[in-house]
């Protein structure tokens, strides 16, 4: 069962689903930030909690026009990943003991592999912004 789930959530799945993300989906992500944060902190995804905060920050800065040096693919991948984490009835329902978060974990891991350099660039930008404010 786990191997089948890993095959379903692969690079192709991410690329296909990211192409379906629309701006309204980002609004849904932002509207559910508290629920997503709570789920990340309570579930087997706790190690992704800080990355989730960084992802929310990137979406916020992108939406308000403060940070535009990021491809739409990255923003859409973040939106898709966070919405998938929010959905309790995804490929493996979250209430299944021991395996409920495997698919969430797999998608998060795959998405990070695709957008890691953009997350680093955003973090560098945030650090530079903070330095400029403190100067």
Q: Tell me the span between the first and last alpha carbons.
A: 54 Å
Written as H for each helix and E for each strand, in order along the chain, the element string is HHHHHHH
Assembly type of the chains comes to single chain
Into which percentage range does the β-strand content fall? under 5%
Portion of residues in helices? over 70%
Structural class call reads mainly alpha
- Low-confidence spans: pLDDT under 50, at least 5 residues? none
The chain-level mean pLDDT equals: 81
Q: What does the overall shape look like?
A: globular
Task: Write up what this structure looks like.
By secondary structure, the protein is mainly α. It has one domain. The protein is built from 7 helices and no strands. Helix 2 crosses helix 6, helix 3 packs across helix 6 and helix 6 packs across helix 7. It is globular, with a radius of gyration of 15 Å. The mean pLDDT is about 80.
Key traits:
mainly alpha, 135 residues, single chain, globular
How are the secondary structure elements laid out?
Elements: H1 2-8, H2 11-18, H3 23-31, H4 33-42, H5 49-63, H6 72-86, H7 102-134
Give a quick precis of the structure:
The chain has seven helices and no strands. With 135 residues, it is mostly helical. It has one domain.
């Amino acid at each position: 069962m786990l191997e089948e789930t890993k095959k379903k959530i692969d690079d192709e799945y991410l690329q296909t689903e990211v192409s379906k993300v629309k701006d309204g989906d980002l609004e849904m992500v932002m509207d559910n930030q508290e629920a997503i944060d709570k789920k990340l902190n309570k579930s087997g995804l706790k190690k992704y909690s800080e990355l989730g905060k960084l992802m929310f920050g990137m979406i916020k800065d992108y939406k308000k026009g403060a940070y535009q040096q990021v491809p739409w693919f990255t923003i859409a991948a973040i939106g898709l990943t966070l919405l998938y984490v929010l959905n309790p009835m995804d490929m493996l329902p979250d209430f299944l003991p021991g395996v409920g978060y495997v698919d969430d974990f797999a998608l998060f891991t795959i998405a990070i592999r695709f957008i890691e350099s953009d997350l680093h660039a955003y973090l560098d930008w945030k650090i530079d912004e903070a330095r400029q404010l403190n100067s």
